[in-house]
């Protein structure tokens, strides 16, 4: 038996709801602190731009104990995802646990264990805190000469997350900075909403994945299975895995070159002058984007103009580029992403958690042995974030209660962290993005580790072919969790 804890979950997005449910289900007393007025995180309506939808199919972007509605399309809209999250919170009785409009300003260590969590309302003590506020906390901002004059002349400069009213672009000249999926989504939406002109300004072309390869094969069947995951060198590989990887290296190389050729033809990248220089396998991590439907056709027919460069400044009615181009503009939409970090962490904790190169020291991408009573949910970003957040939340409960099948020592955890960071820096440099907090494309390897730690008796599907060639199955992971040893709490 272990003692019931007062648990604070920071954030009420996908990962915060997973953590709240996992701790509540085990019997702990949970409080969720959410800085906005609504749940959902990036899927909250006030943060969602028009046309947003998931990059992952609905059967992957879900909790283990709640499927998305059957009537949802394969790639649900932002509004549908938010409705799913609200329904989940209601069904699991999580809504009464959430304190909205409550911003965490600081954490400090409490004598005897646990943390003080400070908000505008005061300071409250908790036995355990899980941070589920996301890898990226605040909008990136860019300052250029002439911004005030541009605005004074009637122009608008907005972060892409602030573009929530499609009527804003109708009949107006729009310039979009960035080349992420949010940038291409906004570009396509602006065309659809009747913008007078749409220009996207980007630094470098990147590989994008279509919803269907060659218009036929769902991308999840090619990139989301153990077979494709096995093409990448994983962490802590066995000698057998290393040998197989070495022997198949020429075939793997040929596979990626064939995929590049397919995408080049499917999107017309060579004719557009937008074929990326870097190998596609180097970009298959959390930053990999799906191709917004309609984006490449709109480039081909001129409805969207693309210029390689960046913004250098503004004048009334004009955006000035680094190339010297002067673009007539009424609206500049900056799809420049978000700042990475957890601003309310004290400096002494941040020094233990973050390496000089920005890599996070987190065992299983969730905890640091030198920072007790603190965990992270959702910092194991992936192509199936709802599933991976759900699984790490369930792992975290058992870790906090000292009930993992093998509860690792501090030295064991630090050893794993050191080896994992060395692997990210040398073997798989592409995985360094997100501060090392990305489990993609290693979904199965990461989830295998979590299940083994929890003592799951079953960790794979009974059909070996399905296990190798099919994507992760949330229902299967629910059945694996059912084989994890149960335990109770002292009242």
Automatic annotation (TrEMBL):
The keyword Thylakoid is annotated on this UniProt entry: no
Residue stretches in coiled coil: none
GO terms, molecular function: oxidoreductase activity
Keyword presence, Oxidoreductase: yes
Family to which the UniProt record says this protein belongs: Belongs to the FMO family.
Pfam families, alphabetized: FMO-like (PF00743)
Stated name of the protein: Trimethylamine monooxygenase
EC numbers, comma separated: 1.14.13.148
Keywords on record: FAD, Flavoprotein, NADP, Oxidoreductase
């Amino acid at each position: 038996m272990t003692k019931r804890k007062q648990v604070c979950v920071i954030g009420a997005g996908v990962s915060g709801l997973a953590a709240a449910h996992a701790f509540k289900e085990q019997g702990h007393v949970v409080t969720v602190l959410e800085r906005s007025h609504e749940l959902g995180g990036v899927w909250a309506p006030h943060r969602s731009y028009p046309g947003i939808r998931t990059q992952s199919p609905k059967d992957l972007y879900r909790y283990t104990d709640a499927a998305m509605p059957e009537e949802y399309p394969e790639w649900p809209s932002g509004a549908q995802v938010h409705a799913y999250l609200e329904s989940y919170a209601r069904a699991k009785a999580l809504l009464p646990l959430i304190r909205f409009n409550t911003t965490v300003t600081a954490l400090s260590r409490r004598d005897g264990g646990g943390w003080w969590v400070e908000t505008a309302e005061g300071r409250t003590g908790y036995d355990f805190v899980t941070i589920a506020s996301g890898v990226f906390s605040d909008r990136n901002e860019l300052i250029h000469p002439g911004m005030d004059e541009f605005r004074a002349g009637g122009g608008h400069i907005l972060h892409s997350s602030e573009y929530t009213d499609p009527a804003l672009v109708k009949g107006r000249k729009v310039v979009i900075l960035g080349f992420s999926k949010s940038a291409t989504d906004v570009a396509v939406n602006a065309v659809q909403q009747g913008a007078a002109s749409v220009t996207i300004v980007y630094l470098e072309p990147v590989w994008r994945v279509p919803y269907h390869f060659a218009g036929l094969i769902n991308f999840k069947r090619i990139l989301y299975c153990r077979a494709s995951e096995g093409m990448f060198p994983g962490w802590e590989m066995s000698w057998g895995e290393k040998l197989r990887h070495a022997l198949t290296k020429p075939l793997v190389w040929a596979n990626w070159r064939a995929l590049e050729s397919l995408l080049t033809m499917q999107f017309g990248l060579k004719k557009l002058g937008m074929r990326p220089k870097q190998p596609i396998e180097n970009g298959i991590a959390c930053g990999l984007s799906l191709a917004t439907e309609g984006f490449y056709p709109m480039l081909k027919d001129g409805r969207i103009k693309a210029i390689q460069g960046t913004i250098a400044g503004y004048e009334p009615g004009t955006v000035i580029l680094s190339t010297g181009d002067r673009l007539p503009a009424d609206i500049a939409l900056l799809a420049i992403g978000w700042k990475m970090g957890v601003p309310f962490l004290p400096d002494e904790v941040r020094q233990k958690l973050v390496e000089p190169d920005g890599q996070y020291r987190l065992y299983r991408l969730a905890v640091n042995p030198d920072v007790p009573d603190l965990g992270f949910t959702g910092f194991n970003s992936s192509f199936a974030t709802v599933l991976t957040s759900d699984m790490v939340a369930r792992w975290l409960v058992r870790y906090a209660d000292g009930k993992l099948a093998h509860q690792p020592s501090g030295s064991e955890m630090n050893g794993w962290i050191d080896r994992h960071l060395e692997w990210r820096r040398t073997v798989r440099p592409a995985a360094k993005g997100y501060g090392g907090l990305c489990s993609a494309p290693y979904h199965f390897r990461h989830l295998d580790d979590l299940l083994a730690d929890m003592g799951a008796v079953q960790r794979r599907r009974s059909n070996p072919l399905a296990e190798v060639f099919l994507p992760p199955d949330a229902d299967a992971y629910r059945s694996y969790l059912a084989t994890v040893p149960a335990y109770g709490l002292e009242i």
